[in-house]
Amino acid sequence: MGKIYKLESMSALDGPGLRYVVFLQGCPLRCDFCHNADCADLLGGIEMSAEEVFQKIERAIPYIKKNGGVTLSGGEPLFQKEFTNQLLSLCRKAGLHTAMETSGACDIGDVIDLVDLVILDIKADGRNRDGAEKLLLACEEKAVPVWLTQVVIPTRNDSIEKLRPFAQLKERFSCVQKASLLPYHTMGLNKWKGTCPIEHIPAMDKAKCKELEDSLFPKA
To answer: Which residues of the chain have pLDDT under 50?
Structure first.
């Protein structure tokens, strides 16, 4: 059994094509810029088996199978590794493309043999850098493609100098297909219920975020 935060049947933001997204409950990190702060606690969520979740995914197969697939997000999917393994196995048997959004906070283990794409979030505060690099090495060894992301937060890391280590990961690892900067937004502050440490920081300007991304990753 697994703990599910929510299910989203049609998403164009969590991997290639149209995706069915499974948000798992629980995360070992407590990032102060998290927009899903209410799903960090493993005690929350709805308990479902992998088979029950897959039955819901099956209804969307006519829409997602051709160019999309299934994405496991959260929370942290690897925090519930057994459930993640079971669900990915069912998706693979059905011929569905699978992606996993993760911070690398937990060891990937044999899950790497069941996922077609890893979307790896490199934390803006520098936490969990070792775990992220360990995951990148595993993806390199298994030839699993990776998309890198990092949230850009005003006054925290909104400069070329602060973002340079993120850009260097793309240069170091051939498994990285692309890297994207995500502008910090404040839409999840209500989930913190007044406890967010950075609620005084405004949303990141999207145009400036795009300028930083274009500077770090100029198109050929």
So the answer is: none
